[in-house]
Each structure stands twice: as structure tokens, then as C-alpha cells.
TrEMBL record:
Component of the Smc5-Smc6 complex. GO terms for biological process: double-strand break repair via homologous recombination. It comes from Malassezia sympodialis (strain ATCC 42132). This is Non-structural maintenance of chromosomes element 1 homolog. Signal peptide: none annotated. It holds the Pfam family zf-RING-like. Belongs to the NSE1 family. It is an enzyme of class 2 (transferase). GO terms for molecular function: ubiquitin protein ligase activity; zinc ion binding. The lineage of its organism: Eukaryota, Fungi, Dikarya, Basidiomycota, Ustilaginomycotina.
């Protein structure tokens, strides 16, 4: 049996790393990749190797994408579901009733008042009791912990509220844009969904930027690109609580 070429072995290791984590800080992936290149005596070219993975992962309905942290701008590499029904993966292996609850929870997060894009844990539990059929508090707690553990939700230790994770925003991008009835904000710099950052104060305007994109926007604009009014935004996300 012929052993695989070092480059093929390297790329397979990358696939395994992404499959096990689904979202990996690029700096961490670079460290792993550099170690593998040294061990296999392969010249490093991470971007080329990630591009070479695309046909392989596309064959099983996956896609390698990049994104950035909305606050720090730290880059991430994400292995996403390329299918339109990405929400189904979020729900796996949950029951139809749990999927109904997950959809309701995502809707509540996206449509949270004042652009908070988060739902207090107490509200999340109350929602579960209002489902048909109702979910018990214990079942809801277990489901929420599972979604947090699997990287779909993040729980703020400061406010005790659930928000969609960076992975969820990437995976569910199409679903959120198509199903949330205009609830999402799009960054005027990087054109991805904003749940942490700032939004124009002008009534009815949805011009928004991530925290990590704000400096780049201010460097080139004094007005909102959506409504042409002076750029004087208000917070989006956790900082929106109690803001004017």
C-alpha cells in the first residue's frame, strides 16, 4: 500500500482539526499547521492548503470560511454547513419540539429590544414553558447547556443572557437573513451580520458596524452610509442595555 504524500497527510490533518472544533482561531491553526509542516517537512502555505481542502469538504456539504471576532478583529477559520438547512445541524440530535424551541430562541435573540441581540436566561426558560407542548425547566436547561457546549450559544457571565456565537452567525447567515424578517443588521465595512458594535441613531436607519470595524468606518466617513446623517451611533449588543 502506497503511503499518502506529505502534503495530502498535512491537508487531512487540517480537515480533522476543523472537524473536531468547527471554528478555530487562525493564530491557533497557524501554530498547529507550522508544527505539522515541520514534522512532515512540507513548505508552509496555509491559505493554499485551505483552498485545496474546499473540493474535499464541499463533497460532503461543508465549506471552509474565514471570519473575524466582532470586538477584537481576531481572525477565525470556520468549517461550516454549506447547505441551506444549516439550522437542522444546529438542532441535531434534538427532537422536533426542541427544534421548535431553538427556532423561537433564535428569533427572540435577533429581535431582542434595543438591538441587544441577547435573551436573558430567565426569559429563555420562560419561553420553554410556553412552547406547545411545554418543555420542563430541566429539559430547557439541558438543551441550553448543550447548545452552549456545542458552540452555538454564548452565555454572558456579566448579564446572564444568551447570544448567538460567532460560529452560529457564520453557519446561520443565510437563515438569519432570509427568515428573520429584517431583524439582522449588516456591517457597512465587512458586510457580515452585526450583533456587537454600533448602529445609526437615525430613526428607521439600520446602518451598522462591528466594534472591530468602527475605526475603519470612522476613518473614511463622518456620515452614515445608509441615511447620510451625521454618524453618531448607539451601541449594539451587550453594551446596548441601558444605552440612550
Amino acid at each position: 500500500m502506497v503511503a499518502p504524500a506529505p502534503r495530502a497527510t498535512l491537508q487531512q490533518a487540517l480537515v480533522q482539526a476543523l472537524l473536531s472544533r468547527r471554528i478555530v482561531p487562525r493564530a491557533e491553526l497557524v501554530r498547529l499547521y507550522t508544527e505539522l509542516c515541520g514534522a512532515l517537512e512540507v513548505p508552509p502555505d496555509l491559505d493554499d492548503d485551505l483552498a485545496a481542502l474546499q473540493p474535499r469538504v464541499a463533497a460532503v456539504g461543508l465549506d471552509v470560511r474565514t471570519c473575524h471576532d466582532p470586538v477584537s478583529a481576531a481572525p477565525f477559520v470556520v468549517l461550516t454547513n454549506a447547505k441551506a438547512d444549516a439550522l437542522a445541524e444546529l438542532a441535531t440530535p434534538h427532537s422536533p419540539a426542541e427544534l421548535q424551541y431553538i427556532k423561537a430562541l433564535v428569533d427572540a435573540v435577533v429581535h431582542a429590544p434595543d438591538y441587544r441581540f441577547a435573551v436573558p436566561s430567565t426569559q429563555a426558560l420562560q419561553m420553554a414553558s410556553q412552547m406547545q407542548p411545554p418543555m420542563t425547566k430541566q429539559a430547557a436547561n439541558e438543551l441550553l447547556r448543550s447548545l452552549e457546549h456545542r458552540g452555538w450559544l454564548v452565555l454572558s457571565r456579566r448579564t446572564g443572557a444568551y447570544a448567538l456565537s460567532l460560529r452560529a452567525l457564520v453557519e446561520l447567515d443565510t437563515y438569519l437573513r432570509n427568515e428573520m424578517d429584517g431583524g439582522v443588521l449588516e456591517c457597512m465595512v465587512c458586510y457580515t451580520i452585526v450583533t456587537v458594535g454600533a448602529v445609526c441613531r437615525t430613526h428607521g436607519c439600520r446602518g451598522a458596524v462591528h466594534t472591530s470595524c468602527a475605526d475603519a468606518y470612522r476613518a473614511g466617513h463622518t456620515t452614515c452610509a445608509q441615511c447620510a446623517q451625521p454618524w453618531d451611533p448607539r451601541p449594539v449588543g451587550e453594551a446596548a442595555a441601558g444605552a440612550d
